[in-house]
Amino acid sequence: MLTIFIRRKASSFFLLLVCFISHGALAQKTAVKPGVNRLDLAGIWQFEVDSLDRGVNDKWFARKLSDQIRLPGSMTTNFKGNDIDVHTPWTGSIVDSSWYNNPSYARYRVNGNIKVPFWLQPVKYYKGPAWYQKEIEIPAGWKGSDINLFIERSHWETSVWVDDKFAGMANSLAAPDVFELGQFLSPGKHRLTVRIDNQVGDIDPGENSHSITDHTQGNWNGMVGKIFIEKRSKLCFADVQVFPDIDRKQITVKIQLKNTARTSLLPHILASVSDNAGHALSSKTQTVHIDTANQRISITYPMGLKPHLWDEFNPNLYKLKLQLQGDGKVLDSKEISFGMRKFSSRGTQFAINGRLTFLRGTLDCAAFPLTGYPPTDVQSWTDIFRKCKSYGLNHIRFHSWCPPEAAFTAADQVGLYLQIECSSWANQGATIGDGKPIDQFIYDESNRIVSAYGNHPSFCMLLYGNEPAGDQMKKYLTGFVKYWKPRDNRRLYTTGAGWPIIDESNYNSTPDPRIQLWGAGLKSVINAESPKTNFDWRNVIAKWQHPTVSHEIGQWCVYPDFSEISKYTGILKAKNFEIFRDQLKENGLADYASDFLNASGNLQVLCYKADIEAALRTPGFGGFQLLGLYDFPGQGTALVGVLNAFWHEKGYVSQKEYSRFCNAVVPLARFPKMVYYNDETLRVPMEIAQFGPAPIKDPQIKWSVSSVDGKVWYRGAFKKSIIPNGNNIFLGDINQPLAGITSPQRMIVSLSVNNYTNSWDIFVYPREHVKPKENILVTSVLDDKAIALLKNGGKVLWTLKQHTLNKDMGGDIAIGFSTIFWNTAWTHSQPPTTMGILCDPKHPALANFPTQSFSNWQWWDAMSHSSAMELDKIKPGLKPIVRVIDDWVTARSLGLIFECNVGKGKLIVSSVDLSADIQSRPEAKQLTSSLLTYMGSNDFKPAENVELQKLQAITGGE
């Protein structure tokens, strides 16, 4: 324990630090408990809406307000505000505004049945000033004391009056609002009035900023978290920041005192540090001088020979206790949790405590469906963060907002690296760096954030906000980085999430290294290039000298889970899901809802696996930030999570399965392709990304090739004495002939390193196919010959040439291999607008084309050479052999392959082109063989009859 005496001498201060070895000394000095010094203001407040903004001029602070409200809470959680209608003044861009005029939405624009598709819908809505008021009584013992009003989080411009006197205004979106009220509060009763305005005023962070937008948490009005009035000593701690130094095994404590006392006190500071187990640390004696103008003190405290370091694997924490004493009294006390850690860069990668690490992150976009505002309790955040870690993540990016204190505390305890942003997304109508009030706000907000949360070891990265715009934004953000780097070395700094990249930053954030760029459509890696895993992003990042984090990778959609609707028991309702469910039902597909969810979900996981593994394979890479692990409820509804907005599983992938390819240690493989003939040799370099707590010594490295029934066809092992930290670490090559596989198979290639296992599906087909016993016409046109054959009872496989499908029959539907990127509303229907296939794997037509019910890599060829047929335009209720899952907004019945009777004949229609360049397309050859084998069997008994005229309309009657 450390004792610091502060003596006043002339115009200068000095400190004499004396160490006490006995841990009990501090407890003996503080045996006398201070009196009550805090008044909790939670409960019922008077309240009134000020929709005409007359309250200030009409002096509402000088009278009793007419309504009541419960705090902490918001107007919405108290069911205050207006009903939702077509005139609701939302906060947030609505890119697809068709809801306001499209006849298909007319029934959802009727009062009493208002349902919006673009985000979750609050039960009430209000934007503007509102007034909150409470009668308080100041104890007699508080006379002459400094008194503060503490509001943990209000939203957002907050003005305070005591009785009829104005006491100040605050406008943070990130940190607590603290008002000094001592000069207004004498002992006795007073009227405390708070005016909160949630409109965007002179300070415009961007209406899509997650700190304010209705896309996610909602633009709420109210006060949440702790709300209290507190008595403070006139000499007290104003700010305390702890700077760990793991190299010197010490901390530097920077203290700023507030001194409004006029007496000549001779105070002293008692300081002690204890570890997680409560063991006190020793210290040394030293003298420290302070700056009289700012009354700042700097203390160096030794942390012992082997301090416990903090990281994702061992989130060790220490507790610093400070007491300011004078005249035998405890004037003030402070307790700070901190960690001994150094988050830094090493070349183009990140390091934690000198050891290489890799950011495996997701975004938190401030979606809180039950309350519409963030939780302020530690347990709620602990549950979220543990879920993230169970899916292999070690990093959270808070997109254009900053969470409350409880989130940092939970991240400290769980072990997560946080990127914090200063409440802004200055784009789409807002700009940064152009001399507007937002420019100064960002500096003020960043200072508030660092002061409030800077001691948390989880707080590792800071930037302005998301995707900036503005002619001078690069110059402005360069200044922002230069401002912070020398001021606080506890974290790394960059400009904005996404851009711009500057030399002054500690790290880069860019969307360039990912398999689907915004606007890439079908030209992306995953849609334009045949399946493989032997690529990475080394060429993309080679031009930069700092660590690079890939910005918002993924964005892969899944079909809505309509069973989720009942979970919205709070103030935000999933009316968007209700609209989508109605559309599916009206199109006669309601029974497919769960199948669409499962099939699109499995494709979504495949896409995320491809994205994440590409990042992990890249040597010298810094990491990725997913968008996201959980759903984004706004921007037209972006169902991009394997978890829903409540952070709950959706049923198609478990945390165990997901963490096989997203983890601190991930075995990897560089497949040149995913589809093989059985006369080929499987040649695959195997490697590992290893960012665990230490090198892996004498690892057990095994590989195998198995069939889906569990039979191991081939196996082997690699020998390596040690696997260091890092990635792109070569383990060995698989060189395995596939001649033993004589029938078409989906094979599972697995690689395990100790307890870490990853696997990949490959597909092996025979080179030669058995021809069907009977004569079946395969044609790319439904010509006279094909029609005559059908009329005479023959069999025809009609495989459409790509791009010949009539637009009215689905030819204009943008089909591709991947699922939808983000959503169709916000991307202006960027292709693909479909979500993979759905089929019955047991259908005999697919017996020789091994498949699951959903898209796997063998379907890439089909989806890349096809169009989606609108089945109901051919025949209402027509059920295909292979279905395509449509966008949930249109929810059409789409198909790739269907069968039918035409007169006396039997027909299979394939909108997959099975004729073009067939010799270089093993999947197409195998699918054709499977269909022909089926057509030549007794199982070929189509249940549906389709008119020839309808069939001819498929391609316009060619």
Automatic annotation (TrEMBL):
User: In terms of domain of life, where is this protein from?
Assistant: Bacteria
Q: Which UniProt keywords apply?
A: Glycosidase, Hydrolase, Signal
Q: For this UniProt entry, which residues form the secretion signal?
A: 1-27
**Could you tell me which residue ranges the Glycoside hydrolase family 2 immunoglobulin-like beta-sandwich domain spans?**
239-341
What Pfam family is a match for this entry? Glyco_hydro_2_N
Ranges for the Glycosyl hydrolases family 2 sugar binding domain? 41-198
The protein's Enzyme Commission number: 3.2.1.23
Q: Which reaction does it catalyse?
A: Hydrolysis of terminal non-reducing beta-D-galactose residues in beta-D-galactosides
Protein family per UniProt: Belongs to the glycosyl hydrolase 2 family.
What is this protein's record name?
A: beta-galactosidase
- Lineage, uppermost ranks: Bacteria, Pseudomonadati, Bacteroidota, Sphingobacteriia, Sphingobacteriales
